Amino acid sequence: MLEKALPNAMLKAKPNIESRIRLLKRDWLIVYDMLNGQNNSGFGWDEYRLLVVAEDAVWNSYLNSHKEAGQFRHRSFPYYDQLTAIYARDRATGKDAQTTADVIEEINVQDVPTTYINEERNEFYDSEADVSLDDMDVSATEPQPDRN
Q1: What are 122-140's pLDDT values in tens digits?
Q2: CA atoms lying within 13 Å on the CB side of residue 122
Q3: How many Å apart are CA 44 and CA 55, to the nearest integer?
Q4: Which of 18, 24, 119, 137 has the most other CB atoms within 10 Å of its CB?
Q5: Residues in contact with 7: Cβ distance below 8 Å, sequence separation at least 6, in sequence order
Q6: What is the mean pLDDT of residues 55-66?
Q7: Where is this region: Disordered (predicted)?
Q8: Coil vs helix vs strand at 53
Q9: CB count, 10 Å around CB of 77?
């Protein structure tokens, strides 16, 4: 199709499309991080003009550490909603992240039985629950003298 539209341009469609997709995703990440990133309060999305809005002080502070975002201070990004539908699921935000303590607390709240796991395992193998290494015969594991 690109060949028909621009017959003498010698352009390949696939690399140009892939390049455009990478550029759109990069721009979307910049806008998405401004609107949803941690410690980025003060930014909003203007649905009518399709651009990021904020007070000048918020912009100036953010641009000190995020120079790439400057292009969106006065420029619309009309594909933001569509690209959010495509890429937002793959973007880790930490919103539902849990620490180990959270998981342990959740297990305790759910009353998951964990006290008899060893006993159940020993019953499965038809052995007693109170077996210790002191009671076991480990003489077969001791080094044997050389017979040479």
Answers
A1: 555 555 555 565 666 666 6
A2: 10
A3: 10
A4: 24
A5: none
A6: 91
A7: 126-148
A8: strand
A9: 19
